[in-house]
Each structure stands twice: as structure tokens, then as C-alpha cells.
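Hey, can you fold this one?
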Amino acid sequence: MIVAGFGFRAAATPASLHAALSATGVTLPAALAAPADKCAAPAFQAFAADLGLPVIAISPDALAAAETHTRSPRVNAARGTGSVAEAAALSAAGQNARLICPRVVSTDRMATCALAEGMTS
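Sure. Predicted structure:
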């Protein structure tokens, strides 16, 4: 199962999120993941509805526990992780998940996306 994890600014639009997903090269993951406090954002809800995909809300503790490839000091100070998108994808994909696409940024710089694949034990 491939999960697309997202980080995004309050000003992000559904187009921002589509652009970030498109930059990963994957057209349709199995699910979308984002920090729990961002999942109800109208742009993210519209994006998920457009794709017809389930949304997985990731808790702050789960975000902080994920080992990310990207290490942004600013994001770490704000969210306790190096990359919200990578942490969300890894957390949602399960215990043995692996990152298959590190964080990419939308063309308008409003959203990031990363992909993780759930692994069987």
C-alpha cells in the first residue's frame, strides 16, 4: 500500500496539493495522510474528495516518532519532525513502512508530499 503524506501551509489550495502529488510521479496512492490538525482544512478535504481517497490523520506524537530523510530545522521546531510530509506518509503506512519518495514541493511552494510504502512483516 502506498500512502501519500502531506504538509501544507494554510494558504494552500487543492491545486497546490495536486501539484505536490504530481511531483512524486504517482497518480493515485491508496490513501492520503496529514497532521491531525490539518485534515479538516477545506483545501485538503476538497483534494481528498476529488481523488476519492481516504484521509489518515496523524497525531503529533506519531509525527515526532517517524525517522525522516529530510531534516528541516524550522519544521522540526514547529512540528517535532524534519519533514511533515515524510513523517505523515511513514506513520500512515505502518510499522515496517519505507520511504519511496522523499519530500517534494509544489510549484507554488504551498504544499509538500512524500510517499511511503507499507511493508509486510
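The domain at 2-117 is CATH 3.30.420.180 (Nucleotidyltransferase; domain 5). Let me know if you want another pass with a different chain boundary.
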